[in-house]
Amino acid sequence: SSGINAEWPLRPGTGLKRVKSDVVVPFLKPLLATNTFGELVAATKVLRRTLEETDAFNEIVIDISKHAPSPSKEVVVSVCVKENRRITVGMTVKNDVNSTDGSFDVYGKLRNLFGRMESLSVKYSKGTNILSGCHVTLHKPIFPQLRSHVLFTTSTEQTLNRSSGFSTSDYLARLEYQFEGLGGLHVCQGDGLWQQIHGSKAPVAVREEYGHHTKFCVRHEYTRDRRDDNLTPTRGSRVSVKSELAGFLGDANHVRVDGDVSKSTRLPLGLAATLTARAGFIHTFSETSRVPITERFFCGGPGSVRGFFTDGVGDQAGGRPLGGLYHWGVGLSLHRHLPFSPYIWGLGKFMRLHGFVNTGSLESQPGELMAKPRVSVGSGLIIKVADRFKMEINYALPLLFAPGDTINRGFQFGIGINFL
Questions:
Q1: For helices 21-28 and 37-53, angle between their N-to-C axes, nearest 10 degrees
Q2: Which residues contact 236 (CB under 8 A, 6 or more apart)?
């Protein structure tokens, strides 16, 4: 029926304490735009999801009731909330989205600094790649568009590149703006970075990179994910494009573009196929400009072109990868549930068999990029862990490789989220 009116008397009893009422009101306004009871119910579901995403409330109760007995079709919508604790302290174990590096984080979060859902977070990290790191982030949602955020982060990190044998000390200041558009998430960043590259046991070609490096850049990243599962998808697609412009100040002077796209579809006999493609390039503005080793692309390993050691594709010096300015990769994976799914201890719910074909290349000259493609095939087991990341145990066989590549014929183990 039509003529539904929604009212929200924001008075004591709604649960608002530190959160200002004028911050919450814009999220409730869509309720007034409904014309039928079905639209109102759908709007309340969206409202609940929206309020949950603010991380400001841990209990949300939305009640729809009619006025006192009367022929009127007016209803009253009551929204009662319980605010989250102002201070949260905890620890997490996580894996980097695009690599096989894991870290252990201890964090503290202070919510609602000024009553408008601002937060201040402090995080200390230690892991396989980040030897130690401290991040301080000030976060401010932009209203009434909840999915727009402004963040300011300062951080210091000591990192180790195990494959190339160098370490870095990074000091970073970043201003970031996130918003939704074109069906995906946009992340705009402005960075100021001071980095020192150092180490002890490394070949001369890597030691030549040692010293101080400064970079001031702007960056944009667009991600659209329509997959039914972000770890073992059976349908849908994902698109990610990252672009960076450096050269305002400092010694970095380049354009860097990197992207990947994947498409999954279901096949007969319980099979699913996932096709993934990646590519990227770095272009300097002058012939004398140098791209530091920390800015270059690397290729090869369990999360990239399988059948090679981590970063094992491309130019090497003393067994250490030097990276490149151009790369591409394509992977096709066929996967399905285990044959006994899901009856033996429920293993089939989080384990899948898969076979794959990978190909790709990494070079410093664009003309050589397609001349020496690497190809590998194999099969293995995919294990989902808590729906947060996945482990792969594969047997890989390199078919095509170039002199200098470090191949890994046999079993490989990898942990991550996005694999080729």
A1: 140
A2: 225, 226, 227, 228, 263, 264
